[in-house]
Specification:
- The chain has 244 residues and is of the alpha+beta class.
- It has a single domain, classed as L-fuculose-1-phosphate Aldolase, CATH 3.40.225.10.
- 43% of the residues lie in helices and 13% in strands.
- The chain contains 8 helices and 7 strands, in the order H-E-E-E-H-E-H-H-E-H-E-E-H-H-H.
- It has a 7-stranded mixed sheet with strand order 3-2-1-4-7-6-5, with helices on both faces.
- Helix 3 crosses helix 6.
- The radius of gyration is 17 Å and the shape is globular.
């Protein structure tokens, strides 16, 4: 990647961090986003440990090189689980240029259910019909073998719902992974709210759900790119330091 492309990735990530905080999708100073800056995924940008999402700037992001030793979190390095999980995801999944990992309220609640399948009950939930990998074999914090197992769970998809944990979305752009997570949390909120009503769900048919998912994928406008572009435009006015 060129220096200009890397700077754009830094700014896109910083915007995604700050907007996630505004949406209350963050969790203290945990969770992490990353972006691979070489083709084999051994080098990637990631947030350093201990910085609140609402304060992340483009220049705060650190470069992890999996062929070199990592700086400790206290010296500005990443959270150990970030290096492990994201390193494995980038190395093992070519579609995972960007990786976003969060534990937001509704996605995490859904991940605790015996059956966490996102049932297609509206157009947002149908977006994810047969397009999510469901991991129900939680093995503790994402270190070592657990990180490798999670990376294998993705397969050819772009979303992993991580049982008893949260979720991870991946994409070729920050805009892709962020938009998927935004709608994933909205879908989980709708489904969990419907479950809470105690009434029987009216689930869309296979044909309707699949058609809707395809319509999302083939939409004749770059909704994902526009979403992040508008976020950056708002931040340019309200928090312009995010680009620095």
């Amino acid at each position: 990647m060129t220096d200009s492309e890397i700077q754009t990735a830094r700014e896109d990530l910083a915007a995604a961090f700050r907007w996630s905080a505004r949406l209350n999708m963050h969790e203290a100073v945990s969770n992490h986003f990353s972006f691979a800056i070489n083709d084999d995924g051994t080098q990637f940008l990631v947030n350093p440990a201990g910085i609140h999402f609402s304060r992340v700037k483009a220049s705060d992001l650190v470069v992890v090189d999996l062929d070199q030793s990592l700086p400790a979190p206290a010296q500005g390095g990443p959270d150990p689980t970030a290096a492990a999980i994201h390193g494995a995801m980038h190395r093992n999944n070519p579609q995972a240029r960007c990786v976003i990992h969060l534990h937001p309220k509704y996605v995490t609640a859904l991940s605790t259910l015996e059956n966490p399948t996102i049932l297609p009950i509206d157009q947002n939930t149908a977006r994810f019909y047969n397009r999510v990998s469901y991991d129900i074999d939680f093995g503790g914090m994402g270190l070592g073998d657990e990180a490798e197992r999670l990376s294998a769970q993705l397969g050819n998809r772009s979303i992993v719902l991580m049982g008893a944990h949260g979720a991870m979305t991946v994409g070729q752009r920050v805009a892709d992974a962020f938009d998927d997570f935004y709608y994933l949390e909205r879908a989980a909120e709708t489904l969990m709210t419907a479950y809470a009503s105690g009434q029987k769900l009216r689930v869309l048919s296979h044909d309707v759900a699949e058609t809707t998912a395809q319509q999302w994928a083939e939409y004749g406008f770059d909704l994902r790119g526009a979403h992040l572009s508008e976020i950056k435009s708002i931040l340019d006015v309200e928090e312009p330091e995010f680009r620095h």
